[in-house]
Amino acid sequence: MLRSRLLVSLLVLTAGACSVDDDAYTPSAPPEESDSWEGGKEDAPSPGPEVPAAEQSADIGQFFMVDHYGVTPEGYADIRNKIKTKNLGAIILWNPTNASGETLRTMIRGYSQMAADAGRDELFFASDQEEKSTQRFSAAHGFTGLFGGNVLGDSSNVERVCELHARITAREMASAGMNMSLGTVSDLYTRDSGTRGMFRQRAIDSDPNVIGPCITAMSRAYREEGHVVFITKHFPGLGNASGNTDVDASVHTRSTTKIAMERELAPYRAVSQAVTAANGWNYFGAMISHASYPILDGSNSPGTLSSTILTTFLRGSASEQLALGGKDGSGASPTFAGMGFRGLAISDAFWTWGATRGLTAIQRQRLMARAFLAGNDILMIAKSDFSGAWGYFQLVYADRMPEAEKQALAEATGMRWDALRAKFRARIEESAARIRSAKAAVGRSTTFTGTGPARNASSELTAEYRALGG
Predict the structure, then answer these.
(1) Mutual orientation of helices 417-442 and 361-374 as an angle, nearest 10°?
(2) In the 3-class helix/strand/coil scheme, how is the chain assigned residue by residue?
(3) CB atoms within 10 A of CB 242
(4) How far apart are CA 293 and CA 97, in angstroms?
(5) CA-CA distance, 250 to 362, in Å (whole number)?
(6) CA 79, CA 58: separation in Å to the nearest integer?
(7) Is the pLDDT of residue 300 over 70?
(8) Which whole number is the average pLDDT over 318-323?
(9) Nearest to 165 by CA among 177, 176, 153
(10) What are the backbone angles phi and psi of residue 248, rounded to the nearest 5°?
(11) Are 111 and 80 a contacting pair, CB within 8 Å?
(12) Would you tell me which of 43, 79, 228, 298 could form a disulfide with 387, CB atoms 3.0–4.6 Å apart?
């Protein structure tokens, strides 16, 4: 489907009265530079003393992805300690010093081997490697420079260029030891969205019939390449949002009719159905939006905290119409077919969520527990929050939470403590099984890393990729 870039440019220029700040796109960043450097911030405390080892769950560290700001051959001592003592499950990588893919490979090999030697689980080594503007490891680091999402959607052969985009990314990430790609987005581009500056470059198109086949082709390519889990985002759709969740806790979808909401859901439906049909769910996942969706969940809870969205709807049967309790713009209560999703659910970053601004460490930990109870498998958090959150989760698991915080969490969730704790333990079993299935599918990173610049792993694909995106 050939599109005129001139027409696209004119649409952008005439999209309305947009301030420079609204249109500007600055990719998300880690909490603070000092937060991920060895010797940076101290870990925030949990509400009570550490649970005795005999009463701990060995799985709890698996539910956190922490920011890793910097790439060095040896990595960081505090990360190594978190892996060895608390079974840290995942890191999201940033490269502020422009370290090469070879240096990254050395660091990941060290972490992976240390985890194996300590009898710990393999980590997810994740990165925003979705497209040009948020490609954390790029041509300067030995990787192929990727197209922006809008270039993919403008190609004469969208499905093929999207397949190549995913194969190149998967092969090069695997060559450097990374095993999780956070992107590409399945969100629609909407000209009057509160996040229009971001999605102008990142979104593939404004038409779900273009986005769905693209993301589906990507999911197939990642599964066939075999060593990288593909996480699309931001479910259930952030392209028609009222603002930016990074700075605003009250962001909500502007989709107030079933037709409008189904347009946002369409790419996620298409790829979920394809992944389920191919039984490839352990190579796939979705990042969950911090916005609220009143048409889906009448409580107005952010997607991150909504069990209606994360459990009832996301994992509900695609053959069943669900009364979710939401209201459309007219006050009616539409039903929605379940998504039939079986992959990993990963929260958007807590450090860039407006709802966490000004909260104490304990309040952030309570929010994380609520998000986990709602149905997130992995929470993306600041590294300085990890030990406290790990301790908080252990206190819930072992029923050793101080009474005041026990009451605060129960009140925040609307659950009685005994029911809350039973659900928490059930969620641990459920999420741990999904995470370990995905990690078993992609294998240990030490077994599939390559040599030399990462671009060597996909060199036979790049000429066609460039031609289709040209």
Answers:
(1) 70
(2) CCCCHHHHHHHHHCCCCCCHHHHCCCCCCCCCHHHCCCCCCCCCCCCCCCCCHHHCCCCHHHHEEEEEECCCCCCCHHHHHHHHHHCCCEEEEECCCCCCHHHHHHHHHHHHHHHHHCCCCCCEEEECCCCHHHCCCCHHHCCCCCCCHHHHHCCCCHHHHHHHHHHHHHHHHHHHCCCEEEEEECCCCCCCCCCHHHHHHHCCCCCHHHHHHHHHHHHHHHHHHCCCEEEEEEECCCCCECCCCCCCCCCEECCCCHHHHHHHHHHHHHHHHHHHHCCCHHHEEEEECCCECCCCCCCCCEHHHCHHHHHHHCCCCCCCEECCCCCCCCCCCCCEECCCCCCEEEECCCCCCHHHCCCCHHHHHHHHHHHHHHCCCEEEECHHHHHHHHHHHHHHHHCCCCHHHHHHHHHHHCCCHHHHHHHHHHHHHHHHHHHHHHHHHHCCHHHCCCCCCHHHHHCCCHHHHHHHHC
(3) 17
(4) 39
(5) 21
(6) 17
(7) yes
(8) 96
(9) 153
(10) -130, 120
(11) yes
(12) 43
Q: If we measure between CA atoms, which residue out of 63, 65, 53, 128 comes closest to residue 94?
A: 128
Residue 88's Cβ-count burial label (10 Å; 0-12, 13-18, 19+) is: buried
Mean pLDDT of 130-144: 93
Tokens found for residue 28: 């998300």
Nearest of 211, 268, 259, 275 to residue 237 by alpha carbon: 268
Residue 8: band (very low, low, confident or very high) from pLDDT cuts 50, 70, 90: very low
Calculate the alpha carbon distances from 178 to 73, 75, 102, 348, 412 in Å: 15, 14, 12, 19, 37
Count the neighbouring beta carbons within 10 Å of the beta carbon of residue 7: 10
The pLDDT mean for the chain works out to 91
228 phi and psi angles, rounded to 5 deg: -135, 130
Single-letter amino acid, residue 138: S
